[in-house]
Amino acid sequence: MRSLVLLAVAGTALSAQATAPAATAPTPGPIPPAEQQIAAAVLALPAEMRDGATVMGYKEAGKLVVLREGKNGMHCLALYVTRPDFHVACYHKSLEPFMARGRSLRAEGVKGEQVDSVRFKEIKSGKLKMPKQGSLYTLTTKKENYDAATNKVSTAGLLTVLYMPGATTESTGITSQPRAEGPWIMFPGTPKAHIMMSGKM
Description:
The strands form 2 sheets. The chain has an 8-stranded mixed beta sheet with strand order 2-1-3-4-5-8-10-9, with helices on both faces. Strands 6-7 form a two-stranded antiparallel ribbon. The chain is globular. By secondary structure, it is of the alpha+beta class. The protein has one domain (2-197). Helix content is 27%, strand content 25%.
């Protein structure tokens, strides 16, 4: 059961958000204050990295903007504002071109796998740059499991990912078979290949 839960969370986070959400997504309900969005967005990061992160959120419906400039190279998005669940994501600044391009394409009406088809072609041509590696953190739970007053979540699915474009089992020694205990590679051999982290020390 734990394995199924992990894979469900991973699939939701990576397919819907790790590749960047549409900047024009509808906003359910009133837009929270910038301070709340900032506090919520950084929850995906380890505590010691939160204060230094750049945070993007919403001042008006459908327009993602920078709410706070950071200094540690991490970008966090207050995605829960535009979604029916509570979901926030943070990634290394080196992944911003890839994420931003995804948002732009979705805003233009490009959908599903076609978003990656366009980005992969642009990466191959050199138009879109990808880093050698870059981290991604996401936090996902039901809307009611987030308490804005205390800025705390309960029963949340925390996912940590390391993007390594082109990575395969042969190049890394890491399996591409999904597993609940230990790392595995998702989308091996592609520009958005990434190592899914799981387990505790």
